[in-house]
Amino acid sequence: QVQLQESGPGLVKPSQTLSLTCTVSGGAINSDLYHWSWIRQPAGKGLEWIGRIYMTGSINYNPSLKSRVTMSIDMSKDQFSLRLSSVTAADTAVYFCAREYRGYDWGLDSWGQGTLVTVSA
Amino acid sequence: QSVLTQPPSASGTPGQRVTIFCSGSSSNVGSNAVNWYQHLPGTAPKLLLYSNDQRPSEVPDRFSGSKSGTSASLAISGLQSEDEADFYCAAWDTSLNGFVFGTGTKVTVL
Fold first, then answer.
1. Residues in a beta bridge with A116
2. What does the pLDDT look like over A42-85, one tens digit per residue?
3. pLDDT in tens, A7-55
4. B residues 47-86 lying closer than 8 A (beta carbon) to A
């Protein structure tokens, strides 16, 4: 049973860079069956897809965030990461990491519990 | 920035059937598979349906899906109190080269 766990600072100052890591346990982060994704949800709003990374390093980003987002994967540590630069209050949200599974037509079949990141001075 | 439109709310009494619609375009719903997620605030979202109408093994058959053209739907039959949650459709958007989520529908069991 795969488990995903987000970690990182819960408070980031405006204009700085948000950095989060997702640790994957019980699942093969280096398998070609999965993409590894980030999704966020501002308070009272819907889900927003941020991007995904594949074991080969291939990446897709949400075009609206592309200029500020960097994703990476470290298979030796079973982790993948998100960096979002030049943050503003609009980036305050619960951030989820999740796994897309090829067998479910790239449906997001496993999710972390989410971590709240607040952008405030 | 959601490009998939859902009604903000839907409701029904226990045992009833509730249907939620998801409207997209030719670049997303019209040409790619639709997935549905159930989300209880404060918890991790759960994959409910993939490939328009397929259920992961742990999802009860009360949940069903369909797609026609640029619209998709999720039906919940035999509504139960535990079904009260937010539901989101999602699809790959070929023009944006990324996933898009629906605006979300809050289902209330009366």
1. A94
2. 999 999 999 999 988 899 999 999 999 999 999 999 999 999 99
3. 999 999 999 999 999 999 987 899 999 999 999 999 999 999 999 999 8
4. 47, 50-51, 54, 56, 86
Give the closest residue to A64 by CA, choosing from A52, A79, A49.
A49
Per residue in B27-64, is it b (16+ CB within 10 Å) or e — as a string? Answer: bbbbebbbbbbbbeeeebbbbbbbbbbebeeebeeebb
Count CB neighbours of A115 within 10 A. 20
Cβ distance B1 to A48 less than 8 Å, yes or no, reads: yes
The answer to whether residues A29 and A15 touch, using CB atoms and an 8 Å cutoff, is no
Q: Which of A46, A62, A112 minimises the CB distance to B104? A: A46
Report how far residue A121's alpha carbon sits from residue A18's, in angstroms, rounded to the nearest whole number: 13
Taken as a whole, chain B contains a residue count of 110
